[in-house]
Write a structure and sequence with these properties.
This protein is of the alpha+beta class. Helices cover about 35% and strands about 15% of the residues. Helix 9 (about 250-265) packs antiparallel against helix 12. The structure holds the ligand CN(C)[C@H]1CCc2nc(NC(=O)c3cccc([C@H]4CCCN4C(=O)Nc4cccc(C#N)c4)c3)sc2C1.
Length: about 400
């Protein structure tokens, strides 16, 4: 029956008209209309006086920032920070990413977070950091994610001399994580050690999906803005910067080649003082790729690096992931790609408590005086509209229980 179909839309986590999205909508509308200038209009004033209290009471019942105790800043990006937090009701520790809505609106960059939210919410993969909740208030978006107490691989590389044995393990896990992400139809575009985090067990997961993009039916992406960090960016993404270009998931396999080189050599293969020289080295990778005499690198390691750092049409992984898994670099007597998850990782983080942050760099708290740089808009700008539908909870929400009873 039609009502049943509608009922199911209300509780489907992927529906744009599920209950969370509808509550986001009424909240956004009130917040965008609650402007003195606008309320001089009768229709706006009547709407606000009917809904302002309702929206306030709804906000008090929904998940909010004060439900979490801030413990420590563990990361910072262009539009926000990640904090280690403790959910007061359940006492559980999470990593909570906060993105500043004002900055995103000002920079007209308020759509990149959808891929990150959808990937972490629906991946259901041991290789991808999990999204527990997503919520928002008039100033920020919040993503409550599983805490990865081992820190990122940059921190590991600066703390240890990484052997080929370790590199083999972490590269194999990265290959499986990218295979899972590509399997969901996404390209990462910014694969680098900063985005590989170590869990309590010592296995790694991919994080930070802001640069991800969905492939089209024939597995390519038409997109000109070159994103990604210079050192890891592939030549085809660089070459077609600006023009409309097509590229596929092989851009991520290029970055794996850079990653292997960096773990074994200690610096990235195309690094140069000036950014433009790094770009030149990447474009001329056939000639610029060099292996130093020290440290000694095995032939199979050099071979797989060269096969990843090659032109897109003949790059390793272009046809399928198995051509990567079968490369002799991964041959070893401790694990296979099938048993990888049960293998013992090189480093199992030593943790004194569930909120131990010793594996994260100290980050100075930015004393942004928010009050000053947030001014109320002069008229209806629809500044809250880009964020409608962002709120997510993977738990069986009370609404679902209520509706489930009704529709069964
Ligand atoms: C230019 N446009 C198009 C967009 C391109 C993509 C993009 N990504 C952004 N991203 C950000 O603004 C941002 C904010 C906080 C932290 C982080 C990462 C970078 C540092 C750590 N981090 C992160 O996500 N950490 C993380 C994630 C998950 C679990 C744990 C733990 N434990 C830690 C990124 S802003 C922006 C603009």
């Amino acid at each position: 029956m039609e009502q049943d179909e509608l009922l199911h839309q209300l509780v489907d986590p992927k529906s744009p008209i599920n209950i969370e999205s509808l509550l986001d909508t009424i909240t956004a509308l009130v917040n965008d209309c609650k402007i003195p200038v606008l309320m001089r209009m009768k229709s706006v004033d009547n709407f606000i006086s009917r809904y302002e209290r309702v929206v306030e009471s709804v906000a008090a019942l929904r998940m909010k920032a004060t439900d979490f105790r801030q413990l420590k800043v563990i990361g910072r990006g262009a539009f926000g920070e990640v904090h280690l937090v403790r959910h007061t009701r359940t006492n559980t520790v999470y990593a909570m990413k906060m993105l500043n809505k004002d900055d995103m609106i000002k920079r007209a960059d308020s759509a990149f977070f959808w891929e990150e939210r959808d990937i972490m919410a629906h991946a259901n993969s041991e290789w991808i950091v999990r999204l527990q909740y997503a919520f928002q208030d008039p100033r920020h978006l919040y993503m409550v994610m599983e805490y990865m107490p081992g820190g990122d691989l940059v921190n590991l590389m600066t703390s240890y001399e990484v052997s080929e044995k370790w590199t083999r393990f972490y590269t194999a896990e990265l290959v499986e994580a990218l295979a899972a992400l590509h399997g969901m139809g996404y390209i990462h575009r910014d694969v680098k050690p900063d985005n590989m985090l170590i869990s309590r067990s010592g296995h790694i997961k991919l994080a930070d999906f802001g640069t991800c993009v969905k492939m089209n039916a024939n597995g390519v992406v038409r997109c000109s803005t070159a994103v990604g960090t210079p050192d890891y960016i592939s030549p085809e993404v660089l070459r077609n910067q600006g023009q409309d270009s097509e590229f596929g998931k092989e851009v991520d396999w290029w970055s794996v080649g850079v990653f292997i080189y960096e773990m074994l050599v200690g610096e990235t293969p195309f690094y140069a003082e000036a950014l433009v020289s790094t770009y030149t080295n990447i474009m001329n990778h056939q000639t610029s790729l060099r292996f130093p005499d020290e440290p000694l690198i095995s032939n199979q390691a050099k071979d797989i690096i060269k096969k990843f750092l090659s032109a897109a049409p003949e790059r390793l992984g272009k046809n399928n992931v198995d051509e990567i898994r079968n490369h002799k670099f991964f041959k070893n007597d401790e694990w296979t790609f099938e048993t990888l998850r049960d293998a013992t990782p090189p480093i199992i983080p030593t943790l004194r408590s569930d909120d131990d942050t010793t594996h994260f760099e100290e980050i100075e708290t930015r004393d942004r005086d928010n009050a000053s740089d947030f001014q109320l808009p002069k008229t209806f700008n629809g500044n809250q509209l880009p964020f409608i539908g962002f709120t997510y909870s993977n738990e069986y929400s009370p609404v679902k229980k209520l509706l489930h009873g009704a529709s069964s």
